[in-house]
Amino acid sequence: MASTNSGERTGLDLGSAEFTGMIQDGMERVEAELRSSLSVGESFLTDKVSHLAKAGGKRFRPMFALIASQYGDRAMSDDVISGAVVVELTHLATLYHDDVMDEADRRRGAESANARWDNSVAILAGDYIFAVASRLMADLGTDTVRHFADTFGELVTGQMRETIGCGPDEDPVEYYMKVIQEKTGVLIASAGFLGALHGGATEAQRGALFRFGRHLGQVFQIVDDIIDIWSDPEESGKTPGTDLREGVFTLPVLRAMQEDTEGGARLREVLTGPVTEDAVVDEVLGLVRASGGRDAALQDVARYRTLAEDELATLPAGEATEALRGLMNYALARLG
Questions:
Q1: At 106, is the secondary structure helix, strand, or coil?
Q2: Strand, helix or coil at 138?
């Protein structure tokens, strides 16, 4: 793959040019194994299961796995690469299923699988990708299989929790925090754990990296929530209010709804389910933008960042730990 300098190759500042280049070399191995694993099978399957992989993506989770492997004596081993691919395959499979549930038309700048084919094909493609991931896991051993069974169970729990919705006796913010930890945080955490496990890190280091990943996942999702409401659609590629139309109220919205103001009261009145009228979506976005919802959400980001830093403080100082700080800074830099 042609490149200029290693920092440009990853798009992230991971420290020295040598370290960044090493991680990028590993990412190219991940990409090759990812594409290869999705090319096995009948042609009517492989073109569909490869659809989103070919559309690209940040590959953030595999990168975290490769960095986490640096704490052991088997860093960047073949098993580390396979573990990183398992995480990315699982992420891809959930995207196919999410797009069906959300009735999405686009994903990563391309047609979603359900829009290009239909819901049944998209669901089956996601299922097949789980099968591909399972095949790789079988070669990585029972510890990986057991860990991923727990991870996948938590992913489904989070999706089910979001689908059912918060009950009248539950705190909506706490409920939402559980949802994003289960839907987003656990798979990022799993990337850190598997990279560390197959890299040969200690049990204590594996635990710290798993917890760091959970907190990093919370930061990423809350930052996404803020971007969805306050960013310029032409820059972000996202249409403000999409979550509102689906009846999903993200953290800034929930924080705005808690305010003892006229705006908060109006939001509590309107937001009882999916918002379908364009005029009401615009009104809600205006009320949220005028509220303290963004500042309150940023306080939550700061809290999770502190928790993540506490985990990093238990890890050996060095390039890997600084690179993990770079991942956190990347998440925060998206706010502009």
A1: strand
A2: helix
CATH number at residue 47: 1.10.600.10
Question: Is there a contact between 52 and 90 (Cβ–Cβ < 8 Å)?
Answer: no
**Residue 1 pLDDT exceeds 90:** no
Q: Are 17 and 331 in contact (CB under 8 A)?
A: no
Residue in 49, 20, 23 with CA at minimum distance from that of residue 36 = 49
Assess whether 127 and 271 both reside in one domain: no
Per-residue pLDDT for 155 more than 80? yes
| CA 258/CA 256 separation, integer angstroms | 5
Q: Which residue has the tokens 């306050």?
A: 230
Count of structural domains within the chain: 2
More confident residue, 96 or 280: 280
Closest by CA to 198, choosing from 315, 66, 63, is 66
Q: What is the pLDDT of residues 200-238, one digit of tens each?
A: 999 999 999 999 999 999 999 999 899 888 877 666 556
27: which residues sit within 8 A by CB, 6+ positions away? Answer: 10, 59, 62, 63, 66
Cα–Cα distance for residue pair 49/53, rounded to 1 Å: 8
Give 145-159 as a DSSP string: HHHHHHHHHHHHHHH
Based on the fold, state whether residues 151 and 270 are members of the same structural domain.
Answer: no
| pTM (2 d.p.) | 0.88
Q: Is residue 294 part of a domain?
A: yes
**What DSSP string runs through 254-265?**
HHHHTSSSHHHH
Q: Are residues 319 and 237 in the same domain?
A: yes
Structure tokens given for 87? 């995480």
Structure tokens at 140: 């990585």
